[in-house]
Amino acid sequence: MRHLMNPLDFSVEELDRLLDLANDIEKNPEKYAHSCAGKKLATLFYEPSTRTRLSFEAAMLNLGGSVLGFSSADSSSAAKGESVADTIRVISCYADICAMRHPKEGAPLIASMKSRIPVINAGDGGHQHPTQTLTDLLTIRSLKGRLGNFTIGLCGDLKFGRTVHSLIQALIRYPDVNFVLISPEELRIPDNIRDDVLRRNRQQFKEVVRLEDALPELDLLYMTRVQRERFFNEEDYVRMKDFYILDKEKLKLAGPDMMILHPLPRVNEISVEVDDDPRAAYFKQAQYGVYVRMALILTLLGLEGSVC
Ligand code: CP
Questions:
Q1: Is residue 267 located within the same domain as residue 171?
Q2: Same domain, 295 and 177
Q3: 71 in Cβ contact with 57 (< 8 Å)
Q4: Which of 189, 213, 265, 266 has the greatest number of C-beta atoms within 10 Å?
Q5: Which residue ranges have their beta carbon within 6 Å of ligand 1?
Q6: Same domain, 154 and 280
Q7: pLDDT of 178-221, one tens digit each?
C-alpha cells in the first residue's frame, strides 16, 4: 500500500506515467467513468478548502466511485478531542482511500502510519501540498510542452507557502530550471529550502524583492497569496497583503509567452483584469487538478492498469 505525503514519494518515471495517465483521462474521460465503481474516497479536511476537496470529490465521482467525509474539524469528532490516529483507524473501516488536509505539519504522515488505506496529504500547515504540485506539473507540461529548460518566478509568501515548497522540490529533478524567488524580506523562502534543497542540489536561483525586476526574464510566473491564516498577528498580515499586485500595466514587462500560474484562491495579488490575458493559466490549472487527482486515485488503488 502506498501513500502520498511529499511530491518526491514518486520517482520522475512514476510521475511521467501519472501525468501521461492524467492526459489520457483528459482526452478520453468515458474510458475511466466506471474504473472506481464500488470504491469510496474519504475527504478529511480539518482546514478550509474549495479546490482540493471538491476536485478530489469530482475526481472520484468521475471515476464512478463515491465520496464521504467532513469539511471542517468542527463538524467532526476532532472537536471532541479525537486524535488523527484514532480517526484514520475508523475511516479505514469506511473507505478505500483518503485525502487529508490538516493545519498541523506532519498530521497526514501520522495518519498514514496508522492507516489500512492509502492516505493522500492534501496540504499540511506550511509544509507540503503534493497534489497541488502534481496539478502544477501537469499544467506546465501540458501547456508549455516540457518540464525543464525554463526560468520560473515564484512570487509572494515563500515563507509559509506550502505550494511553493513542494513545487521547488519537484522541479529540481528536471533539467535547467532557473528559480527567481520574489518575496518581501519577511516572507523569504525558509532556510531549509534554500540550503538543503536549492544549494545542496547546485540549483540556479536568485532572490529579489521587486516583481518588476524579474518579469522580463520569466517563462513562468507562479503567484501566491499572502496567507492571513499563517500570520501570528493581523498587523503584519495587513502590512504584507498587498505587497504584490500583478496588473495589466506590470504585465507589459513580461514576454508574450510567459505563463501565469496561481494555486488559488487569489485575493488581490492578481488583478481580475489579468484573467482575460492569454498568458493567464490559473483557471485551466484548477481544471487540470481534477485529471491529476483522478490519475492519482487510480494509481494508489492499483487500478491504473485495469483500464484499456
Ligand atoms: N489550491 C488550493 O489548495 O486551494 P484550496 O485551498 O481551495 O483547496
A1: yes
A2: no
A3: no
A4: 189
A5: 49-52, 123, 132, 263-265
A6: yes
A7: 999 999 998 999 999 999 999 999 999 999 999 999 999 999 99
